[in-house]
Amino acid sequence: MKTVGFVTLVRDVVPVLVLLYMGFLEYSFCYEFCYRTVERRSISISLIGIYNVLLCAVLGTWIWVFVEGPGCMGVRVPPYDLDASYRRGRGVVEVEKEEDGEAADGELENPHDHRPSCSPPPQSHPISPTCLPTSPSPPPTIPPPSIFLCNSQGLPAYCTACQTLKVLRSHHTSSCSRCVPTMDHYCLFLGSAIGQNNYRDFIAFIVSVDCLLLLSVVAILCYIKKHLHPAIIVGLSVNIWLFLMVSNLIGSSLSMIRYNETTIERLAKRDLRRRLRKRKNTDVEVLTTYVNVRHPTLEGIRLVVPLSVKDCPYDKGTFAANFKERMTRCRFCNVEEIMEYEKKQFGADFKRKVYERIAHEQGPVRVFGEALLPAGTTA
User: Fold this and answer.
1) What residues contact 227, with CB distance under 8 A and at least 6 apart?
2) At what angle do helices 319-327 and 230-258 cross, to 10 degrees?
3) Contact of 78 with 135, CB cutoff 8 Å
4) Sequence-separated contacts (24+) of 47-51 with Cβ below 8 Å
5) Ramachandran region of residue 376, left (φ > 0), alpha (ψ -120 to 50) or beta?
6) pLDDT band at residue 330, thresholds of 50, 70 and 90?
7) SS3 state of residue 65
8) What is the pLDDT of residues 196-224, one digit of tens each?
9) What mean pLDDT is predicted for residues 252-259?
């Protein structure tokens, strides 16, 4: 509880400190530097005007990040109907074991035998009422798409708090108490989660901040030979460091947009790459991303395919296409609209590579149903 309280305190304090530093910069740059140090009034007034326009852009985009919010699912997405595929997969595995002489008994699994359900048990935690419109209860299960992200057992991620499948690249965030579509990260300096709805506002914010810092650094460096007030020196030193940090953040964001990755997805890849490099096999299976894909030829059979750290499932092939998708805000009114959008998220080149791996038997491709599911497993 103490840790949670400390984290909450930090989340509340850091944005206030950022605002206080902005006020200090207004004093040190506009008053001490522009008004008292710069001799030519025309240059002084121009610098003050440009600086405050950029400052308004920074504050405006910051406010808009909160106004838009990171987004929410809108409706609960029920579990996929995977029971039939699971039973068929178990049957295929049993047949292969019999042919190899590895089966303990000779009976094929009866499709009517009891098998652990892939559907999650009923949960008692309601999703935030502010995120869900009043609508009829969703069906108990829905047909699975041809391909979706899953764990090593072939099951999609499920949020027990929101009682919904984690589609649309969503993650549950405690700061909002809900699942956020295309969740990117929580920005400590802004005090807000960054998701699908406010990602473009976040990009506009960091670009505005970088321009503001660049203006102040370049302007002060032009007068570095003069005797400068200590507040100007402090502001210059901090702004140089902040400019390098924010510029690096912009570069990283553009790189992630190029491959249509979120910060969470890239950090997960980095962690997996580090463990593989150090040969720490602990939790490698948990950290590895898998896709559950419909078999290209066998009806009713699904396969679980592991992905490498080089795979970019959502890459549409061009920077322009990925940029357009990341900057687009989507509103969904029902499960059908969500699933229709979910089907289009995977890139065509990625799906082609997955089916090539299946055809050429590249990597440890498993039949969905090969791993026994414990009773009560949540999808």
Assistant:
1) none
2) 110
3) no
4) 47/215, 47/219, 50/215, 51/212, 51/215, 51/216
5) left
6) confident
7) helix
8) 999 999 999 999 999 999 999 999 999 88
9) 96
Count the helix, strand and coil residues of the chain and give each as a percent rounded to the nearest 5. 45, 10, 45
CB 202 within 8 A of CB 10: no
Cβ proximity of 217 and 236 under 8 Å? yes
CA angle in degrees (0–180, nearest 5) for 341-344-347: 150
User: Tokens in use for 251?
Assistant: 């570069």
The rounded distance, in Å, linking the Cα atoms of 72 and 162 is 11
Q: What are phi and psi of 133, to 5 degrees?
A: -75, 160
Q: What does DSSP say about strands 147-150 and 302-306: parallel, antiparallel, or unpaired? A: unpaired
Q: Is 178 exposed, middle or buried (0-12, 13-18, 19+ CB in 10 A)?
A: buried
What is the Cα–Cα distance from 168 to 314, expressed in whole angstroms? 11
Supply the pTM of this predicted model.
0.83
Task: Output the six-digit token pair for 174.
Answer: 């405690």
DSSP H or E segment with residue 172: strand 171-173
Instruction: Write out pLDDT tens, residues 143-176.
Output: 999 999 999 889 999 999 999 999 999 999 988 8
What sign does the CA torsion over 55, 58, 61, 63 have? negative
Q: Contact 101/363 with Cβ under 8 angstroms? A: no
Amino acid at 2: K
Q: In the structure encoding, which two tokens stand for residue 115, read together?
A: 């098998």
The answer to whether residue 37 scores a pLDDT higher than 70 is yes
Q: How far is residue 104's CA from residue 24's CA, in Å, rounded to a whole number?
A: 76
pLDDT of residue 190: 94
